[in-house]
Amino acid sequence: MKSAIILAAGKGTRMVSKKNKVMHEILGKPLIEHVVNNLEKSGVSFQVVVVGHQAQAIQDHLEDRVHYAVQAQQLGTGHAIQQAKIAKANQGSTLIMYGDIPLVQPETIQALFKHHEGYDLTVATTILDDPSMYGRIIKDEAGDLIKIVEYKDASETERQIQEINTGIYCIDNQLLWKHIDEISNNNKQKEYYITDIVEIFYKNNYKINTMIVEDDFEVMGINDRLELLTANQWLQNKINTGWLKQGVTLIDPNSTYIDPDVSIGIDTIIHPNVRLEKLTKIGENCTIYSNSVIINSTIANNTVIDSSHINDSKIGSHCKIGPMARLRYGTVISDYTKIGNFVEIKNSTLGYNVRCMHLTYVGDSEVGDDVNLGCGVVTVNYDGKNKYKTIIEDGAFIGSNVNLIAPVRIGKNAVVAAGTTVNKDVDEGDMAIGRVRQENKAGYGHKYTSK
Ligand code: UD1
Ligand code: CA
Q: Which of 239, 350, 381, 412 has the most Cβ atoms closer than 10 angstroms to its Cβ?
């Protein structure tokens, strides 16, 4: 079994924030969630997150996807591992990593497990032009890893070393727990460093290995907001470049935000300033114009979305949505339907070839095929206490400025005249009209408008 211990108890002082560092987001997801997702994708089946500072926020976010261990006082990364006793009985290899390394790709984690075969400890390292504050990798003449020295404890010569500790380790779980209590806090920061485990293993003649990660961005630790920005740009660029290679046109990748789990069909064109979030699926040959936000929704092929906000909805093929439409949870729209400007739809099903072009609210409704909803139609679904359903059957024509007071049913091919307030069902083929009869008063206009 592959297990992992993830450290996330520290505050993250360099972030200058009231929030725990690992709850800061890149591409709309907290750093810690990226880590957990990447570990899951690489086949790790048992994850313990060590929490401390704002533990509740992390637990509320990750829920029961992982196990938790609490480090009440943050005495260092080695001390944090000691708290993860829930992982003690596990056999096989344990991956140790920090919650502030969100970009490491599942393939890299898998490669590390592979590299580790036949070893007791493998440290993922990388080479940096500017190794700044990272821990330095100290090797002997044969090139074998002896120890890791933290920047603050390093000598001038050690600080020249460009190979650094990424903070990702693969370790034999039984040996980890056998020796974890040997770590001391005899260093500049008076902290218990997990990095000391390397020297302990070395002195015990255990088999130690390193794996150099080629792309150093992948293993960057996020400590401040500048690094947060860099990480966001790196991930955005990686995802967007991937879609360009897979036949999707992005007019301006710098202002296009696509979550890692989104899928997009070929020949789809995405204009600037678009967000595609969560498990959104966009079909082939769609056009998504600027200022659209699509969350957790499915859009079939050949559909056009313009400046619209869509969440938890399903839209058919050859549809036109927007500009400025808002489709909320539970909206299901069939093929060839058009939704125009300032239309809001919620928890409703619309059939094939429906026209709903202007200033309309459709809530808790079932709308059939070939229905026309005129400008300003409102389904009055809420009486202040309960919500009620509106049913509009195939071919019905609802004129402009109509209130449909639910629960109500408009039959097949029925017509509702403009300005009508409907509070009784309308049978198939009938017409409902209910409005005050107009009276024209001769000359009254002049009286009011002339000075
Ligand atoms: C750490 C490594 C350093 C490495 C770098 C890579 C140590 C001692 N140093 O340094 O060698 O180059 O990461 O990014 O391990 N944490 C706890 N409890 C604690 C302290 C920290 O859970 O008591 C967590 C933090 O929440 C954070 C992670 O461990 O997510 C790393 O801590 P951080 O302070 O960022 O370590 P670095 O100084 O970056
Ligand atoms: Ca760090």
A: 350
